[in-house]
Amino acid sequence: MSLSDTLKPLVIENFIGGSFVKSSKYLDSFDPSTGEIWAQIPDSDPTDVDDAVQHARNAFPMWSKTTAAERAKILIKIADSIEENLDKLAQAESKDQGKPVSLAKRMDIPRAALNFRAFAESICHHVNISNNLPEMGCINFTVRNPVGVAALISPWNLPLYLLTFKIAPALASGNCVVCKPSEITSVTSWMLCKLIKDAGLPNGVLNMVFGTGSKAGEALINHQGVNVISFTGSTNVGRHIGKVAANNIKKVSLELGGKNAGIIFDDADLSKAVPATINSCFLNQGEICLCTSRIFVQRAIFEEFVQRLVKETKNLKVGPPTEDVFMGPLVSQVHLDKVRSYIDIARKDGARVLCGESVDELSLPAPYHKGYFIRPTIITELPDSSACMQEEIFGPVVCLSPFDSEEEVIERVNNVKYGLCSAVWGQKGDRLLRVAQQLHVGTVWINCWLVRSLDMPFGGMKESGIGREGTSHSLELYTEETTICYKYQ
Ligand code: NAD
């Protein structure tokens, strides 16, 4: 198995019961920088899904009885192997998703390795709670057991990074898994299966079925052999998965969309706030659920902030992701059309487009004419009621608006249906902490963005999701806890 340099598309296979299995039907997968077909992925159906779930169920009695140390040893081997294959994985992630190779090398692939390492280490140090009741002559303590078979469904924006954030805790805590990566970006998940097999994970513990959400995904979430569903993706699909899980009384975690705000107070250090905010808006083409898509700037510094933001954004290099660029293409033609449609909406709502799409030229040489490229775009003069200020765009588009008071900005930031994260910039610690505690989001960054400790809970409020993930928090999802009360006197 190698990444083909020939003109023939790479053909990938499901991974079921420890074997790579050919499919009878395939879907085309496109290179976003050229629009050409570069891979073919199985169009799995309910029979493939059933096969994968059965293998996971058969492997569960054995895997669930292994010790944490035995499981950790294999997970650490997988982490090492991801690191050894950094270049190959980063190139594949870039070709499949559109992100710069350099970004995949410093963010996506190292984080995938870290996911395995962090959960391997933490599972070995996990302690359960106990409560002694001497007056009753009893001691209470808890034990945790793996849930069974976990269905892991992931999106296209950080393919290996996000899928491994599910695989690692699920396996570390003794579950078997069936993964369904996004049909748009399946290649690195397939490459991971080979690394996992070589690391000695027993057959059937991890299974991977590729294909569409409506066929393979739907079969997986409805399968009676699945005990828990972990989903990262859009709010609409999450809403549907939540209903299916509720109907079948299955455990579920939903990591969904966002409409994240940056807040820039008038005492912010702009030499740091401007570049970090640009990163937060446009890193990975703005295709990170945590990207900033609304920026509220205190009125006294609004003009200066806008000028600096626009000037530096215009300098960002957009182009083929194999080159030294800040942004590659968006992931698909459909997504590019969606992002552009929001810029059209903004114009209809009376906005001014300060830079980017339709303002600045982007000319790329062949063979990139048919790629899904767009320049980072900054919009202003929009009412908060505009769809551009309310809905998730999930691309390199940000809307800027001035504010006057602390109370006003808290109210406006919270005035969306999402609640994933925010970034707040300023110097006055009391004000920053007051604001941070009143924002209805799962994560607030103060004077930074995207700094992640995997030991901290991660997740969203409101329509951004249900549940928290992290080295101890993921155990809530992937294990069942039993309280044992022992009368000793
Ligand atoms: P999506 O919801 O369209 O698809 C996500 C996954 O769900 C894919 O694997 C897809 O095939 C599958 N799917 C679709 N319909 C399904 C169904 N009926 N049953 C089972 N599975 C189904 O999302 P996307 O377009 O791939 O990703 C972008 C979205 O993901 C954005 O909304 C973004 O904010 C969100 N996201 C959230 C986080 C987070 O941590 N909160 C992280 C990354 C991305």
UniProtKB/TrEMBL annotation:
SUPFAM superfamilies: ALDH-like. The keyword NAD applies. Residues 22-483 form the Aldehyde dehydrogenase domain. GO terms for molecular function: oxidoreductase activity, acting on the aldehyde or oxo group of donors, NAD or NADP as acceptor. The keyword Transit peptide does not apply. Keywords: NAD, Oxidoreductase. Pfam families: Aldedh (PF00171). PANTHER family: 2-AMINOMUCONIC SEMIALDEHYDE DEHYDROGENASE. This is Aldehyde dehydrogenase domain-containing protein. The lineage of its organism: Eukaryota, Metazoa, Ecdysozoa, Arthropoda, Crustacea.
